[in-house]
Design goal:
This protein has 658 residues and is mainly beta. It contains one helix and 37 strands. The strands form nine sheets. It has a five-stranded mixed beta sheet, with no helix packed on it. The protein has a five-stranded mixed beta sheet with strand order 18-20-25-22-23, with no helix packed on it. Strand 13 and strand 14 (248-255) form a beta hairpin. The chain is elongated, with a radius of gyration of 42 Å. The chain starts with a helix and ends in a 31-residue tail after the last strand.
Amino acid sequence: MNAFKFFLTLYSFAFLFAATESLAQTNNLCPQNSVPTLPVNPCTGSTDYSIDQSWSVDNTSNVSNNTACVSSGNNRRDGWFRFVATATTSSIVATVENNRNVALAVYSGACGSMTELGCVNAGGNGVTETLTFTTAIGTTYYIRVIRYNSGSTNNDMDGTIDVVTAATNDNCATATPLTPGVVGAACSSICAGVFGATASSPATGCSGTANDDVWFSFTATQLSHVITVDGSSNFNAVVELLGGNCGALSNLACADLTTDGGIENLTFNNLTAGNTYFIRVYDYDPGAPGDYEFSICVTSPVIPTCPASLGGGVVNVASLPYVSTGRTTNGRGNDITATNAVVCGNSNYYQGLDEVFVFTPAVSGNLSISLTSGSSNVGMMLYDGCPFIGQGGVCVEYSQSNSGNQFICANVIAGHTYYLVVDRNSASNLNNYNISISAPSPGGAPGSTCANAITVPSLPFSTTGQTTQCKGNDYTNASTGSCTSLYESGEDMVFSYTATGSECIRITLSNTSSTQAGFLLYENCPGSAGANCLGYIGGGNVAGNFSLPGAGTYYIIVDSWDPPSSVNFDLSIAASGATSPNDFPCNALTLPLGVNTNGNNSCSSGLLEPAIPSCWTGGELNTVWYKVVPTGTTLVIKTFLVLFQILKLHCIRVRVSV
């Protein structure tokens, strides 16, 4: 029996609690303490109501079933709420979720002496009704929700009801001040709303329609703060952070990752302590939102430091070069994120478990970092200094792609401490990867410039498995003496060859990783005053004969038409026996009239020939000779992209006897 009484009591308490919390479950105004109380501007949004078809009209001595906007015959049933005013003007907003007609009336006073202060029934079925009236702060007011119907009294009515006050922070000048929480403290939010708000200047730099924006301000206490806005169930919050003053604001960041009822977190890591910043909040959609309310706070995250905040995934590299195989980030922790670090490249590559390699080079120079893995979406980010915000670290270089293989070239400075972050564009670990970090090469990687060009000691010469990667884009078509070729836009690798005299060589580029690869031949280094382009060929696996006009140092530069910025290749250089038989005037070949003839001057020269004609516009004087016997007084000669001169010469044969 005692157990049964306990169960009955518990059940009755639960029923009464649910009735009071969610709905106005009575059609009686009195006793007044039985009427549910509505909060003003609640962070949780509107309250549900239900007017049951079994309810009757409250037409006792307390109030009349007639109101200023509903006659006795149309008031089919009603229910009641109350609220305590917090402002001098209050608004009641009621929606109807089914095809019904809702009316609102508001009263003050006590049972038996109620005074009607206002009534609204501006629309018909399914129309939201808003009743705005003057209120006294601290006074209790009573809301009558009426099922308006001129015909049948059947059917219940459901909807939502809300008591709101017009936003006072409708513009930047009247922004509500917020105080950032102490470092590490949880969000301590305030309730706010956009009811009555209108569009402000300047136009938003974020998404959505800012026709109902409200404003807040805060004074930064450190370089990083987090703004959190929690929208009520039918409010789709957009958050904008702005810097400057109200007359000259600039957009700094936006947050709009969720929909109705979602929480927006905007983290900004480049604030100045002591400066005032502004926050604009509005509902994404045009028109009035289903709920006007949201909560907002500004928190102060703990700013991490090195090495204390790097977690367990730290590898201190004692010296370079460094090689390690069979590594994994599994169990290392997601310590370096896009919200606490200086983002290097794409912020998406800070989502996974990470491992950090820390090294201090003993000498300055160029180094390369190579990572291979079967995992996908891998990123490597190299920092000079601690990668966490506010710790002085700067991004040096990064390599990020959907591949598991990544490569970085960077110029490092002796004595500086570098942090290499290995992470993923995925919220998971990186399995089974190998990594190598080369020792720095003072003066740049071998072959990166003419100053440290790869020497071709003699011919024939060949080299395999070469790459322009990590060599830099030192020579372009803007360099002095350039070949003005598009095959000068990527990284370049330089070979030098010293000839003892004029000769013909054949250069072959093979096993290239791209058809955008090519090579260029220079007399003297491009960029220098005496640089002279002797020719170039591009298109991947290519070869060609070239004439070296005399003794001196020549530079063969392997480059690419970017993209790709770097290419892999094999290179061979050999002495060529393919000389031009008509290199000299007296060896001129006869040109038949009216017949197209092909020629080749790749290995000819200008030695033992007449002086350069005045019409010559430049380039190497690698001439070949032809002769023709005209049959008339006019001779037409057609050529393509060559310079030619017409001469009348006599060849003299000298016989010497001893």
